[in-house]
């Protein structure tokens, strides 16, 4: 039976080679009967521009491109909060198709909304303010004009500051705001929301105006990796240990 796969929040970096290998193993195990693979953001821990070329970036691009071309599996990508600067150049290198931050999908007859999920966490007001700044297209254009070595310093400083602040955030701040979930589902006329970002893998069932809806967080790949597998008959979250 054909299936569609969803993953997010791998945060690939040279410091965690086991996660990179887990990705390659995942691709090898899931190469037949796949309609599509959706990566819902934060594939990399940090991204400062398509003009940077590291062995990890190029290797991941090659693996994804081979997976898509050899197995005939389209790969779709929604930007995360760590790698929102991934551009058309790297997407082409990786055989990924870039999607908008909110993407409506007919998933085997179920109207589904896909997103990274960071804009759902409205309780984290400081992050939401920062997000508006760093997603400003004018500032992004100026940032890309800076020398690569300078952008690297800025990128890793932002990453370090973000990790430091995350330690002090509670689950309420990292969790989603239910009213925002419902607003988006109504706006996009969808019954299911699939996202990442919070690293809180789970399925949530709830009603909106008397009609059943669900939200699925696909989880992260730090200590255990998780992915969502959807067919015409089932919706399953898989959680496996990173070896």
Structure description:
The chain is an alpha/beta fold and 243 residues long. The protein has a single domain (3-241), classed as Purple Acid Phosphatase, chain A, domain 2 (4-Layer Sandwich). The protein is built from eight helices and eleven strands. A six-stranded mixed sheet has the order 4-3-2-1-10-11. A five-stranded mixed sheet has the order 5-6-7-9-8, with helices on one face. A hairpin with a 2-residue loop joins β8 and β9. α1 runs parallel beside α2 (55-71). It starts with a strand and ends with a strand. Substrate binds at residues 81-82, 124, 162, 166, 169, 197. It catalyses: UDP-2-N,3-O-bis[(3R)-3-hydroxytetradecanoyl]-alpha-D-glucosamine + H2O = 2-N,3-O-bis[(3R)-3-hydroxytetradecanoyl]-alpha-D-glucosaminyl 1-phosphate + UMP + 2 H(+). It is found in: Cell inner membrane. This is UDP-2,3-diacylglucosamine hydrolase.
What's the CATH superfamily, by name? Metallo-dependent phosphatases
> Class, according to the CATH hierarchy?
Alpha Beta
- Which architecture per CATH? 4-Layer Sandwich
The dominant shape is: globular
End-to-end separation in angstroms reads 28 Å
Oligomer: single chain
Q: How many strands?
A: 11
Look at the structure and give the mean pLDDT: 88
């Amino acid at each position: 039976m054909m299936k569609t796969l969803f993953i997010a929040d791998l945060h690939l970096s040279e410091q965690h080679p086991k996660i990179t290998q887990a990705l390659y193993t995942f691709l090898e195990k899931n190469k037949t009967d796949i309609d599509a693979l959706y990566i819902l953001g934060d594939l990399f821990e940090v991204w400062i521009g398509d003009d940077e070329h590291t062995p990890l970036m190029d290797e991941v691009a090659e693996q994804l491109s081979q997976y898509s071309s050899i197995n005939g599996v389209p790969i779709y990508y929604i930007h995360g909060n760590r790698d929102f600067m991934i551009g058309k150049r790297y997407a082409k290198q990786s055989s990924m198709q870039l999607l908008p931050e909110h993407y409506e999908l007919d998933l085997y007859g179920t109207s589904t909304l896909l997103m990274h999920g960071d804009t759902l966490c409205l309780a984290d007001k400081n992050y939401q303010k920062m997000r508006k700044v760093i997603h400003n297209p004018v500032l992004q254009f100026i940032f890309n004009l800076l020398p690569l070595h300078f952008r690297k310093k800025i990128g890793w400083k932002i990453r370090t500051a973000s990790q430091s602040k995350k330690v002090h955030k509670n689950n309420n701040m990292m969790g989603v705001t239910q009213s925002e979930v419902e607003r988006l589902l109504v706006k996009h006329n969808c019954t299911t929301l699939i996202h990442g970002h919070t690293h809180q893998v789970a399925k949530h069932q709830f009603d909106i105006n008397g009609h059943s809806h669900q939200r699925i967080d696909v989880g992260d790949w730090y200590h255990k990796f998780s992915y969502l597998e959807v067919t015409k008959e089932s919706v399953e979250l898989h959680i496996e240990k990173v070896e």
